[in-house]
Amino acid sequence: MANVKERQKNFFDVCGHCKIRFNCCWDAKPPITVNRERIIEDYLKTHGIHVEEPFVHAEYTFPKENADGHCIFYDKNTRKCLVHPVKPETCVAGPVTFDINRQTGKIEWYLKMEKICPLAGVMYRDKALLARHFEAARKEILRLVRELSPEALKAILKRDEPDTFKINEEEIEGKILNKAYQNN
Fold first, then answer.
1. What is the pLDDT of residue 25?
2. Closest Cα to residue 142, out of 112, 102, 170?
3. How many whole angstroms separate alpha carbon 63 and alpha carbon 36?
4. Strands 74-75 and 61-63
5. pTM recorded for the entire structure
6. How far is Cα 143 from Cα 132, in angstroms, rounded to an integer?
7. Backbone angles phi, psi at 163, to 5 degrees
8. H helix intervals, 58-173
9. In the chain, how many H helices and how many E strands?
10. Rounded to whole angstroms, what are the CA distances from 158 to 28, 75, 83, 106, 147?
11. What pLDDT is attached to residue 15?
12. CA distance 32 to 73
C-alpha cells in the first residue's frame, strides 16, 4: 500500500457532520478495478474485518449494498468507511466526478452541488482547497479509467450524475477515448 496518507486528505470533520445521511455512500456503486478489489480484500484480511463476498460482479464491479442501500463498507455506528485508507478511487475523488465527452475527446470534471454534498460547498468557497483536492481527484480518476475494462468504463459512463456542475475539462488519452466508445 503505497503511502496511504498521501492518497487522501481526511475530510471527516466536514463529512462526519453531514446531515444528508451520507448520500455519497448510498446507491453509489463506485467502480472497482481488479487491482482495487485485491487491495481492499488484502486490507480487510490484514485488519480482521469480515465482509462476506463484498463485491458485485455485473457490468462492472462495485461494493455490495446493505439492506438500506448503503455501501457494504459504510459503518452506520461510526459513520465511517471500513476501508477508508484503501477505498475506491471515485470515493477518494468525491465530490469531484467526471464524464468523457465523445464529441470533444475530453474528460470533463464536475463538482457536486452543496445541496447533496456539504463538502462540495466548503471546497467551492475555498478555491485553494478545491485546487488541491482536484489534483488528487484527477490522479485517482485517471488511474481508474486507465485500469477499467472497456465494458466497465462504458457502464459507468451511463450512470447519471445529477446535481453537478462542470469545473474543468482536458484532453483525454486516445486509448481511453477508444476504450470508452469502441463498438458504439
1. 84
2. 170
3. 11
4. unpaired
5. 0.86
6. 17
7. 60, 45
8. 89-93, 118-125, 127-147, 150-158
9. 8, 7
10. 13, 28, 26, 16, 18
11. 62
12. 13
b/e map of 86-102 (b: 16 or more CB within 10 Å)? bbbbbbbbbbbbbbbee
d(CA 155, CA 169): 21
Measured in whole angstroms, the distance separating CA 159 from the mean position of its chain's CA atoms is: 13
pLDDT for 151 equals 94
Q: What is the DSSP letter of 85?
A: G
- Domain ranges in the chain? 21-86, 92-181
Return the amino acid letter for 85. Answer: P
Alpha helix ranges (H) inside the chain? 4-7, 12-15, 34-46, 89-93, 118-125, 127-147, 150-158, 174-181
User: From CA 178, how far away is CA 102, in angstroms rounded?
Assistant: 9
Nearest alpha carbon to residue 91 among 54, 126, 121, 117: 117
What contacts 30, CB < 8 A, 6 or more positions away? 62, 63, 71, 87, 88, 89, 90, 91
**CA distance readout (Å), 149 to 2, 31, 177:** 23, 11, 12
Those residues of the chain that have pLDDT short of 50 are: 1-6
